[in-house]
Each structure stands twice: as C-alpha cells, then as structure tokens.
Amino acid sequence: MITNFKKQTRLDDTKVLIGVFIAFLILVFFLAPPRDKLSQLCFWANNTKFFIAKTLGNSKATEYIFHRNNAIYLAKMYPNKNSAVKEMDKAIKALPKAASDNELRMLYKDRAEIKLFIGDYKGALNDYINSDMITFNDSLKVALLFKVAGNYREALSYCNNMLNKDNSAYAGFACIADIYNTVNRPDVALKVWDLAIDRNKNNPRAYVDRAMLKKSMGDMAGYNSDIKIAKEYSPTIDTEASIIEDALHPKMLTLEIRKS
Fold this sequence. Notes:
Elements: H1 5-31, H2 37-55, H3 63-77, H4 83-94, H5 101-118, H6 121-131, H7 136-148, H8 152-165, H9 170-182, H10 186-199, H11 204-216, H12 220-233, H13 243-248
Helix pairs in contact: 2-3, 3-4, 3-5, 4-5, 5-6, 6-7, 7-8, 7-9, 8-9, 9-10, 10-11, 11-12
C-alpha cells in the first residue's frame, strides 16, 4: 500500500513552484535595465571584490582602480547617465599621492573617453587636453571636439598634424573636408577629397565620402560615378558608414579593465 503519495505530490509541487519562481527572477533580470547584463555582473563582482579588500584593509592603494573600472562598467550599462563620470571623479580623487604624473594623465584620458562616449563633448575636450596624451588615433576625435566647440582654427591644426605625420592619412583628409563642409565651403572640401584620392587612388572609403559630398551638392552623376569606383575596389563596402560619425558618436567603449 502507498502511504507517502500525498507527501511526494506536495514535494513535487513545491519544486515546480520554486522552479517557476526562479525562472521568473531570471526573466526579470534579463528584461530589466540595463541591457548590458555582462557589464552589470562584472560591476557586481568588482564591488564585491573591493568590499572584501576593504574589509581586510587592503583597499587603499587600489581604490582608484576600483572606481575607474566601475566607471567603465557604468558607462556601458547606462550610456545616457552621468554616473560613470562621477566614478572617474572618485578615481582621480583617490589616486595615491605617491602615484606618478603619468598615472594621473591616464585617468584624465580615460575620463575623456568616457565623456565622449556619453556625449559630454565639452568635458571630453577638456580632459583630452589636460591629459597631454593625445595620440595620432586621438587627433581626429580632438579635432572634431574643437569643431563642435566652434574653434575651427584649432580643429584644423589637429587635422593637419595627422597629415604631417602621414601625408596620405585618410582620417586627416576626412577631418579637413568635414570642417570645411561645416563652415559652408563644400567646394574646398571637394578639393580635399580630390587630393586624398590623388594620393591614394585605391582607397574605396575616400570615393564614398567624395560621392556623399557630391550628392549634397546636387551632383548625382558624380555621386554615382564615385560609388561605382568604390564598389569596384570593395564590392561589400558600407556606403552609409562615416569615420566622422564614429569618432564623435562611438558605439562602443574600448577602455580595458585594469587589474587591481
């Protein structure tokens, strides 16, 4: 005779309810903001690790790295909020007095990248300048930030610096052409693209950019001709992509997490 039937049934029902509840919690976790769940998990892990280090009294020397890494996670989780910048402010404030000037400049540079990512152009420009660590790859971003600020002379100087280092640099030509187009001189911008193509006839992106400029000037025949040439060099080229757009509105934050 079966005597534990009801007991077993209740146990099975309880397991089902627990399973449904857990599934519900998982569903809520993935549907609730933020969308970047990996960064959220890493953020929690970073805070847990720091809490343990702080409890053990081992957190003082690396506190600024904790805040820096938190800032990166927060920027990825909430790119439209200022919480990441506040964490970078804490990182700079927590930097040990014994740290090198280079370490401070690196934090300014990191904060500039985060500010650019969240759309704080004025703050990003100030931090790039204060970092004094503007590389060749940063020059386009800094030039465009000066352009946004209305300082076209300084913007052009950074564009020209790229071409001084590499006289066929695509980013340098794109930079100058964009600035001249911004100040309503598409005729000069067109000459810039002519020079860019003259120096590197095999660059399909330059043809696409010149085509887009011609289109804005009403030259559809010139547009079609340049697009045709670009596709001969690169059949799958994205004719909507823009180095200028990507520089001012980065879709990804590429800062690396540092070990504490």
